[in-house]
Structure formats: structure tokens, C-alpha cells
Amino acid sequence: MYKIKYGKNKAGAVLRVLIFVLFFAVGGITALFAERMSGDSFMQKEEKEETASESAEEPAPEELPVVNDQREVRISGIEVGSLINEGDVIDVRIIKNDGRDEKLLAEKCITAIDEKGLYLMVREDELSKITEAFMSMADGTVLRAYAVRIP
User: Fold this and answer.
1) Sign of the CA dihedral 91, 96, 99, 146?
2) Taking a C-beta distance cutoff of 8 angstroms, is the pair 73, 119 a contact?
3) What is the mean pLDDT of the chain?
4) Residues 129, 26: Cα–Cα separation, whole Å
5) How confident is the model at residue 51 (pLDDT cuts 50, 70, 90)?
6) Is the pTM of this model over 0.90?
7) How many Cα atoms are found within 13 Å in the side-chain-facing hemisphere of 14?
8) CA 147 to CA 151: how far, in whole Å?
9) Residue 147: CB partners within 8 Å, gap ≥ 6?
10) Which of 8, 79, 116, 132 lies at 20 to 30 Å from 102 by C-alpha?
């Protein structure tokens, strides 16, 4: 099993082996005692594993599809006529430099109007379209953006 290479000091080698064995035995006993004190018996571990496997079947909250990902955003730079008020439903349209008129946003309800702009509920894809249109206004590809009230 264990060869003693220490010649005259056999007692020291045996003592080291005993200390080594005791160290691991005490560590194992301490771990068992800590497990029993925490209340995690073998049966409780099985129950925890069963509930964990049952909950693994249900999708986590971050995996659920987002149904309504709209947020209220203030959009400035859209021309608003005097007949458009808070609560109206509008289309936001743009006029390009070649004369084409395109619909940017369709059927958006105005949640608020102030001197800084319109407040609309928009999705992320619509927000990126608005951002792209205003960047095009900066480079001259889009001439203007305006709101049209839907009756």
C-alpha cells in the first residue's frame, strides 16, 4: 500500500499518513453533519429534483413571447395641423425629395401633444423606421414628415 522511504523515521511517516486520513475523514463527517443540519436529506433532494424537472417543462418568463412591446415616445419634427388634437388617430407620412409620399406609421393614437412634439405609442420596429426617416431628413433624402388625421 504505502511504502515508507524514510528509513529511521518510520514513526513520523505513519503519523503523517494518520493525519492525512483523519483530515479527510473529519471533512467527510463535517459535510454529512452540515447536510443533515440544513435539512437536505436524500428524500428532500429527490423532491427538489422532481419539482425542478416539473418547472423546467414550463417556459421561463424571459422565453415567453412579448405580446405588447409598445412604448410611449415623444417624436418631434413632425408637422401637425391645427385640427389634430390629443386622442386623435393619425398616420405619419413622409415626402421624399423625388416627390413620393410614403406612409411611415399607420393608425397611431396621440397620447399627448406639447410644444416639444407628439407622444405616440410605437413598437421597436416602428421606432427604427422613424429614426431612419429623420436621419434621411438630415441628409436631404426626405423633405418633411407630417401627420394626417384619420376620421
Assistant:
1) positive
2) yes
3) 76
4) 67
5) low
6) no
7) 5
8) 13
9) 78, 79, 80, 81, 84, 90, 91, 92, 93, 118
10) 116
Residue that has been written with the C-alpha cell 412591446 in this structure:
69
Tell me the DSSP string of 88-118. Answer: -EEEEEEEETTS-EEEEEEEEEEEEEETTEE
Take residue 111 and report the three cell numbers written for it: 397620447
DSSP conformational letter for 109: E
Residue among 66, 78, 74 at smallest CA distance from 120: 74
Q: What is the enclosing helix (H) or strand (E) of 25?
A: helix 10-38
- What span, in angstroms and rounded, lies between the C-alpha atoms of 121 and 96? 24
If 0-12 CB within 10 Å is exposed, 13-18 middle and 19+ buried, where does residue 72 land? Answer: exposed
What secondary structure does DSSP assign to 76-90, as a single string?
A: -S-B--TT--TT-EE
Residue with cell 385640427: 83
How are strands ordered across the β-sheet holding 89-96?
Answer: 71-75, 117-122, 101-114, 89-96, 142-149
CA distances in angstroms from 26 to 19, 23, 40, 41, listed in the order given? 10, 5, 20, 20
Question: Per residue in 5-31, is it b (16+ CB within 10 Å) or e — as a string?
Answer: eeeeeeeeeeeeeeeeeeeeeeeeeee
